[in-house]
Amino acid sequence: MEIVAFRTEILTPPKDDLLSKIKSSALTLEEGDVVAISSKVVSIWQGRCALKSETDKDTLTRREAEMYLERGNPPAGGPGGAVMHTITNGLLIPSAGIDPFGDYFVLWPEKPQQTAQELLEWFKKTYEREKLYLVITDSRSLPLRQGVTGFAVAWAGFEPLYDGRNRTDLLGNASGGSQVNLPDSIAAAAVLAMGEANEQTPLARLRGVPYLQSQEASVKNPGSCQEEPFQIPMEQDLFAPFLKNMPWKKET
To answer: Cβ–Cβ contacts within 10 Å for residue 216, how many?
Structure first.
């Protein structure tokens, strides 16, 4: 598998023209390529920015999150109450994915799945390719690990799970294997190449990614890549004993 990150001109909050900056980059695409793009530049393209002088991060977090944990006593936000933990777009993420950038806070993209599909169609038309895939990326920490890894905020062009449960192992026996999370696997590899600071490479191309062709979304139904089958209700999640027993709140 080949991963190449591409430099673009800087996008400036509160709103900037992402598509023209992609077109002026060195990006080239072949059939079957995956485009990974940072959620932050997508958000700036959408104007999803708020002036720091007019609001604060916790207020924005409460507004954007589906559920959140207040900084409290006992602390629910990690050592020193460093963050507000939230569930946003069905994902466990600190501060609803909101990051500071200059004088602004940058939120997550609006309607991320729909936005991913719209961007995919734009890439196909602009680069004259019929078979492309797309992932919108961000990064987050994992429990009991230092540092961050990439994950998918949204994806388009393929179904998110590759089912390996009925495959056999090396000895020809039923493997009892698991399903492969394709969007997050792709995003983790892409974000490693794109960087986390001042690299100015919010765009990556992945070539030769396994499993995708067998997971293509129907051309007749391009909206078939939905987050619902991919997400697990909290009650059924492997980490339900931890998640269910927290004092979650919802903004009214």
So the answer is: 14
Report yes or no on 75 lying in a domain.
Answer: no
Query: Would 242 be classed as within a structural domain?
Result: no
In a domain, 84, yes or no: no
Count the domains in the chain: 1
Contact call for residues 13 and 102 (beta carbons, < 8 A): yes
CATH classification at residue 169: 3.30.1330.100
Tell me the β-bridge partners of 149.
Answer: 140
* Predicted confidence (pLDDT) per residue in 196-249, tens digit: 989 999 999 999 999 887 666 544 444 444 444 678 888 988 889 989 888 899
Return the H-helix or E-strand segment holding 39.
Answer: helix 39-46
Cβ contact 148:83 at 8 Å: no
Helices (DSSP H) in 47-181: which residue ranges? Answer: 57-64, 112-126
195's tokens:
């960087």
Write down the pTM of the prediction. 0.91
Beta bridge partners of 6: 203
Six-digit token pair at 101?
Answer: 């950038």
> Which tens digits make up the pLDDT trace of 164-204?
666 777 777 776 667 889 999 999 999 999 999 899 999 99
Is 192 within the bounds of a domain?
yes
Residue entry with tokens 């892409």? 190
Contact indicator for 91, 136 with CB cutoff of 8 Å: no
Residue 162 has pLDDT above 90, yes or no: no
SS3 for 164-188, per residue? CCCCECCCCCECCCCEEEHHHHHHH
